[in-house]
Predict the structure.
Amino acid sequence: MADKEATVYVVDLGESMADCHNGRDESDLDFGMRYVWDKISTTVAASRKTWTLGVVALNTDETDNAQDCEGLEGYENISVLQEIGPMTMSELRDLRSLIQPSHSHGGDAVSAIVVALSMIEAFTKKLKYNRKIILVTNAESPIDDESLEDVANRLNDSNIELIVIGIDFDDPDYGFKEEDKSKAKRKNEKILRKLVDQCNNGVFGTMAQAVEELAIPRIKPVRPFKAYDGPLTLGDPSKYESALSIHVERYFKTKRAMPPAASTVVINPGRGGPSQSETLDEDTEMGGTEFSGVKQMRTYRVDDPEAPGGKRDVDPEELEKGYMYGRTVVHISDSDMAITKLNTKKSFTILGFVPFSSYSQFINMGETGIIVAQKHNEEAELGLSALIHALHELESYAVARYVQKDDSQPQIFLLKPNPAIEDDFECLYDVPLPFAEDVRSYQFPPLDKVLTVTGSVIKEHRLLPSEDLKQAMSDFVDAMDLSGFDVDDEGKPAEYAPIDDLYNPTIHRINQAIRARAVNPEAPIAPPAEILLRYSKPPEKLIQKAKSEIEALVDAAEIKKVPAKAQGRRGRKEPVKPLSGLDVDALLGERKRTTISIDNAIPEFKQILATAEDDATVESAAKQMGEIVRKLIQDSFADLFYARAAENLRVMREELINLEEPAMYNKFLTGLKKSILRGELNGDRREMWFKHIIGGHLSLITQDESEVSEVTAEEAKAFAT
Amino acid sequence: MAWGGDDDRRPEADEGQEELDETDYKTQKDAVLFAIDVSASMLQQPPATGKKKADTDSAIAAALKCAYQFMQQRIIAQPKDMMGILFFGTEKSKFRDEAGGRSGTGYPHCYLFTDLDVPGGDDVKRLKALVEEGEDADEVLVPSKEPASMANVLFCANQVFTTNAANFGSRRLFIITDRDDPHGNDRNAKSSAAVRAKDLYDLGVVIELFPISHAGKTFDVSKFYDDIIYRDPAAEVGSPDEVKTSKAGDGLSLLNSLISNINSKQTPKRAYFANLHFELAPGLTISVKGYMPLHRQAPARSCWVWTGGEKAQLAQSETIKVDSATRTVDKSEVKKAYKFGGEYIYFKPEEAASLKQLGDKGLRLIGFKPRSMLPMWASVKKSTFIFPSEEHYVGSTRVFSALWQKLLESDKVGIAWFVARVNANPIMVAIIPSRNPDDETSETPYLPAGLWLYPLPFADDVRNVDLSAPPRPADELTDKMREIVQNLQLPKAMYNPLKYPNPSLQWHYKILQAMALEENVPDQLDDPTIPKYKQIHKRVDGYLAEWKEILAHKAQGLMESRAVKREAEEEDDEPPTKRAKPAAKKAAGSAMSNAELKAAYEKDTLKKMTVAELKDVLASKGVSAVGKKAELVEKLGEWIEENV
């Protein structure tokens, strides 16, 4: 269970925080707040009641804190901006308006820590919490160093972690030193460092490093989830006494994390449109109050030839559940719904064993599980361990049938032994395997030989690599090795791009953008952090290292890009022939086709165009095809012939693009649109227009598709709406 | 579509992230028309040999059984795809009855037994009756005296496809025949057939021939069919379309031989993505196509049925979007926003689009690793198969082949950045080679040779499972277990998925079929995924008994040594303070206030409650009260944390 948190941020708002330093073009406050906002918005994003935070401001013009109220001295110019509590967007908004540089500089940072400390003590009492104080300051205002030890003791007694992050603090480890540091700041830095050193749990760092590290994605921890707790069997214990049964527990090892999903919303009626929120007016707020969620309402219709449009609405109350068996509706009453579900009992049982060499990873169908023995069960511990070791020694996997709980669907798992040789963890890993229905048998030609029509085997062919190419590829693959390309902390070669370093770019990109927008709605979206795109290309150093191998491979490969035009017109060059090579066109030539019949329109249209020698023939064919399309629409009972009309149109469009005659198609379509919208084709044919023609991407041919077209993309878009 | 192009799609369309951009494709549906020759030789019963494995099916019976099986598989695996059956060379002729269609006289000796459509219960029933009972009331299976004109057969098929599957992405005519020269030396008849075949080609229909040869006689495709069949325009270069002849012999019945030939064409080869640029290195790009030979098949979802009419009817649902005041909202008003801290964070559409723009569609290699470096647990989803295409880069195939050979030889894998489609989320993949199916060392003889894009988990996908499972040395128990493992190898020492149909899926459709056909619902399923218990018992009973005995003994020893250790520790420690406290007062769980619960939770004293109390309180909070005590405590803790 995630621990409860209570964190107080102490933020220096002193007047010096409004200045820019060290070549930055943002103020010290803005620079520091980058870190603070990121942390706070992460808490908001989690929206957990048990993650609480408070904010104390140092160097405010006013003074507002409990200690000062009690009349204690030294607590001037310190204000509690927010008491400890869960954080929501509206609090975030309030806080945003309060974080402004003041005109003061008299606050004592250590006193502010004491204020924060008292807040935490009062809030968390003696309960189990992760307690934390984070101080962000440029340490320009004086600090009283008399009671450092008392403060540190109190922090330690209350088990509070103190994190001091200073703007332009010196940090030799990180490699930062401020050259023109003021005397006062140097002194204050020393005091704060001393305080942190006295804490059991303290961190002292410089803001530049903290801001830099913000880009490193933080992974949301998920508690292990126990998917199965029961016997792993070999044989049937209910029938045979000798059958084996080991009590195991199974957890998920991998589970795909999903990027946050956007919800569908509308702008609340009665409020301003989005344009208002984009103004800089202080009063307009971004975010929630403007938007509200959209719900889905379903309506149901059934075919009814007598109803207008052939369909009528039915009351959802009248509906029952069912399944489709092919095109037959199988109605199943509620009480029978379970009948199509296979009855299964929770179980995990081994079918047999297979050698390592009979398996390759790419048949994995999904996520991995991890199997360990039941806790405090000596038999299970020893038994599972023996199985793991035996499998490992024999280089074998187990294949098992897994039913997670009663009436779950059975799955087939491959169980892989992990005998704790590389890590300190003895277990089985499992991955799901495919069933018969999950495999589609697609045929592909072999990659290492070419078979001719007559069945002979060719080993040298333009489709096969030459010896040179094979050698160049081999050198290239070896040169681009990543297994020792990286360097670890001790300077030893290490694996490049291990899974620990692969962050899901989508998840973190969206989360970072959401957090940034929550804090600052007006700012444009920043480009993705460099770390997220690190593995989108090979490392530059590796490319340099393998330069000669790459060049040799490029030379040996002799790849030629097919010009864009040729791709579109392939097939026009030589007539297509059946396997025998018979010239069917010649057969046709004896009775050359000139008219197109509605029954065999597509082949006849294509054949006329293929042998057309003049524009007039093409035009005549296009005209006939157009007439057929119109006739099909006109004669269609409801939408019966629409698909066929659309297919004819599609062929017509494609062929006329190939012949560079887009105008013929565009002219016809413009006329067709008019006829349809005017209802000239025997009734309301708008469904044909919108669903089949526009929806089927059969609109005007644009210049993008055919250079000789006079229609621009914009015109086509306007035409389609 | 039978299989959605994208399994990333989540059930709630509203929240879905991956919006499919597959509208560019033609309807990717498949229509198959079986054209089965009804000749005297097709109908002839095989000679009775008295051998055990002798063929009992006539060629026509085998063809019909294949079609029947094909139909059933289609309903399960490709529920939106069409199928039809046309007999030719029949004495009777029949086309459609419907008005506007031609009467049977248009196509003499062609009998359209099942019109091209998504198969329905009636179609299955009729075909089943013909196959299993030999019920042929209409006397369809009577050969004509004259053979049918193949030109007519092909044109008949043309009409069936033109009207019923006008815009299907894949249309295929399966011809099953044992006649290699239907027209002998009749040149005219042959040319008309060739012309009609060209029509089919231009229409986009692919002809697949399934020739049957009878004992001793080979089927010579050059006599007639080479003029009819075209190379599949979508097929890879260098792959002559193999026409496999089915015959009885080699221990294989005609039926099995035909089934295996037809099954290999069951699913049309659909590319998941075409023309993907595969960048091996700066300056070296080839093009590949992607396929999904592995895809989890699940029962179709239930639907709503309207039973108010004469016949149960499928109710089509439409969704409209409404706002909080149940006002219907127009599509143009709808915006996308992210929930955050109880409110919505809004991005303009172009901003939202730019958020997803992390790289262009493509596959970019970043380097290579030994295959052993892939952690054995590193699995998240199924892999995609890629194969080279010469369409955009000439020479792609040879480079791909060189890479494939090198990876196999060195047992290495490529590591690459992969964006499958425009706007798809980028993932990291390992590029793993698969061996030739006829290679004896192939791990996957049921899958093609090529490269696989194996998705790697991101750090975000890995659960940190922190359990204590300290390693133990191998011992006597390990040795004994080895003997058991060695004696229980799966057949052919491999897991062949084709031998293990999915029991849930089979059961689901078996029941549906029985209901659709109004037959008795079966009460049992033949399920090969259930271990062969008897065999296991027979083979390793002795070893198991021995092993268990040693285990019991060792476990006893371990238990005792642990108890001793624990006692020693307890003596050292002060008595646990918790025990000294008075027992928690016996309150019925549900009588405890939230504040009391919270207090108990924070003091970590929930576990002092009895199971009955825990169940009581969980039930009162509407939380499932099932599980062991520890689980109940955890559940209650969670509830308190989230709600109090």
Notes: Chain B touches chain A through 268 residues (CB under 8 Å).
